[in-house]
Amino acid sequence: MLTRDRLRLIRRRLVQVAPVIVLATFIVFGLQQLVPGDIAVTLAGDNATDARIAEIRALYGLDRPFLAQYGHWLWGVLHGDLGKSLLSGEVVLDSIFRRFPVSLLIVGCALALSLAIGIPLGILAATRPGSRVDAFVTSIASLGVALPNFWLAMLLVATFALNWTIFPATGAKPLSAGLGPALLHAALPSIALAAGAIAEVARQLRSSLVEVLSSQYVRTLHAKGLSPAAILWRHGLKNVSVNLLTVIGLVFNRLLGATVVIEAVFAIPGIGSMVVHAAIHKDFPVIQGVVLALVLIVIALNLLIDVLYTVFDPRIGQK
Amino acid sequence: MPTFRRRDFLASAAGLALAGPALAQKKGGVLKVSANANPSSLDPATGGSGSDHSYLYPIFDTLIDFEPATLKALPGLAESWSNPDPTTLVLNIRAGVTFHDGTPLDAAAVKFNLDRARSDPRSNIKGDLATVDSVEASGPQQVTLKLKQPDSALLLILSDRAGMMSSPKAVQELGKDYDRKPVGAGPMKFVSWNDNEKVTYARHDRYWKPGQPLLDGLEMNVIPEINTALRAVVAGQNDFVYFLSPQQKPLVERAKNLTAVSGPTLYCVIVFLNFAKPPLDNLKVRQALNYATDRESFAKATMAGLSEVATTVLPKAHWAYDPALADFYRYDPDKAKALLAEAGHKDGLELHLIGYTDQRQQQRQEVLQEMWRKAGVKLRFSTFNIPEGSAAFFSKAEGNGLVSQWTGRPDPSLTFTLLYGKGSYFNAGRQEATPEIAKSLAESRASADIEARKKAFSVLQKQVLEQALSVPLLFQFELDAHNNRVKGFQPNLLGKPRFNGVWLDG
Amino acid sequence: MRRVLAWLRRDLRAALSVGFLLLLLGLSVAAPVVAPHSPTRQDVNNTLHEPDASHPLGTDDLGRDVLSRLIYGAPATLYASFLAVTVAIVIGVPVGLLAGFLGGWIDDAISRLIDTLLSFPAIVLAIAVTGALGIGLTNGMIAVGIVFSPQLARLVRAQTLIVKQELYVDAARVFGASVGRILWKHVVPNAIQPVIVQVTLLLAVALLAEASLSFLGLGVQPPQPSWGAMLARAYHYMEIAPEQMYAPGIAILLTALAFNALGESLRVALDPTMKRR
Q1: Interface with A, mutate which of C21, C115, C154, C156 (most A CBs under 10 A)
Q2: Domain B1-36+187-265+482-506 adopts which CATH fold?
Q3: Per CATH, which fold does B59-174 belong to?
Q4: pTM summary value
């Protein structure tokens, strides 16, 4: 699996990752500086005077120059210290370790759902292009893509949680509370999240698979008398796997983003509610911590995808 | 508020004693609450949000307690008090009370807390104690406050954040971390706080009130969205939810396992006006806005009737309310138009208002927009989150008005001074309204006699109304819901639930 | 023009979606004439009412006519989606093409930047940018467009990379064709297809983003109606009046469907390998 080429690719990427992390957190830090107002207004309480707000600002080091603040934060990160929430004083690393698993469970379930349903649908449609099955899958996919997941979540809550009370309407349970309760709580949110992703996987897979299967090359294989199944597995899927990987990367990232709104609908204590709350109140250390964690996760996935690219299409690795 | 009368104390002490024997079978249970916001801090001195109180009450007993329905002062950690002269307040601290960490609650501890509130750089309640000149421990269990000027509002201020007593030992040892590890002398000990998730409490076994607390523990689960919060109670994940919107009342009634609790509060939905800035520096325009306001319709549209219309900032149940002023501004769009024309805005007028972004607030903005449009006033809104919207209007003097709420203060003098006093934060223009109002404000605070104060407040309220310094709209009713296992809950006029005295059945 | 008409005659799906979108456009322009009521007129005695003759879709929480609000909400919603996607295309496509085709350090640099931007939680970045620009529909949608652009860039880059491996591009290069010419003649036609697929998806996502921002109170300002804002309000009445969430939700769904269907049809029509010979 790990050829020398791939190890070199991984090494090269790892070296490239460090500046990305710095760049990402720097951009977010800078963005917060663009935003007028800061958390001092909130910290100072209900009837604070300007002087009081300035006092708070000095107390929390918010009046220091931008680069000094950023440097201080980065220095802490290098020592494993993400700081504390300005709003409530909670250690950011604690919040992240508590909340990320909650969100990742939902996102993971949604991704699994979308692959488990999306890939078979895509193959089904692509192998019988123009058929009724294809038309059906295409329609389902169009519907799934067009369905606002926020609205779907509302419909699901109204039907399955409020009307029939099969699933809980709110909250989440960690895996440590047992697989059953955890999945029960994650069910509606991940279905709401997955609808769009299923459609996207199915569409993209069908679209690239049809292209490959209709190519001159495959037609030649046909003429040579290879069975359709063999062509599909050996040539079709292998060729579209690069596209599929790209789609998985996009879908995963979009799921992470979409979970922000879905978590709001279900009152799930994941990263979504954490970051929205922090962003609205400009709680810098919390935003920075979440962004850093997200960046790390997404970069790790991208790295994995880059490596897999070379597995499925060796030409890409050998520049 | 007048000084405390001995008779009242005896009555309430007798009540406690009577309740004693019945408590035995009431004890038990962990109450799970859907709470609306993450606390800003669990240190009463450094927190800043009005929604913190429900988190703080279980941990902290206050020097002065209050009667839930009327906000009359009752003995708390101070078992009695007196005013030897108008600028001196003597508090006699209950003996034998200890904080959760075992530190004794004595005069030195009270002095430590009050001095900290007045001088710590992180204290957010310096303003509450601004009239206090010095605090002395005049005995092992007696504290004497010297005031800069007579202040009858101070007593009830000590039933608020400033009266919540922290363990001096914990404060000194923990420093800034005390925000997250509070130690008080209340019925519940703090256990843990996970941000935006929950705060948990356990019973304080050595609480000074006999037989109390009834609960074994308390869990405040943070769910900011009220519909979701109610859903958690309907589905049985939580036992209690507060700060519901009136529109949710039918839902509570429909759920067989739930009980609705509602009652009036001081919480006033109001349009703050910047009366120092054109065009609202013109009295006629401000009066026009008040005449253009159909308060009954507003209440019906936004509160489903579960509210009381407001002309002034005190509700009917309040002791300083003057019924003669109830109809001061009866809805009259024609009169509003006429006043606007007199003020030189014959072809209408555009106002820039600040508002908040959540759905309930937007609904209020929409109703107001449509109502005032009929009188020829066009509204343009800029919306922010609550701290920033408030800062934009009150600190930076942006906009002509702010659609918001006044959450009330224990003493009405405080309310009127904060809202209309010269230089006050909540007076966006910082200007003196009129010299007469300034004089009435001072008079309302000077006397300790309740009848004299009532008269002073009548005069003051009438002057404020004549000047149309704001547009009060309605008083929100508190609406809470709990499942039928929850017993012994009592709403209060502050509208911030206290779970003292609550227990769970079965 | 005649070719477009001919295409629409051949392709029923395209005709239907173009028809639907034109209808929306027409409604947007003619809202004051078409809508039965004012979208802001309130009637506190007639709130959350079921559909009847005078209010075909019922009334909302303030007694306003839901159908009229739906009609008046169309322009805001269309504007929002198009704005976001346009911003995304203008930034994303050229960047992706350049990175994929030029390769080397330029590709590395652009890819890192794309990675960086892709690593952001999309909605959070949108919230932050909206906060910086000021709350409102246009600002929110520009933010959403910026957030979408790296997705497009990355897809275009990946496609370009594959096309580049194909022999004919190498062949063209051997024959000394200019970069611009190779991009235009060989890379763009091959890379455009997944881009169109992705853009149609993005139009649907942009509609959702508008709803999300409105839900968080960062979108349309009252009393201007938008479907997203209507949905956000309906969320608050989910138990009392669940029917409030049907109309705006279906409107968003249909519009997104129309965008998608149109995109699919365009893909077929534009695809060089599927062209009628």
Answers
A1: C115
A2: D-Maltodextrin-Binding Protein; domain 2 (3.40.190)
A3: Dipeptide-binding Protein; domain 1 (3.90.76)
A4: 0.77
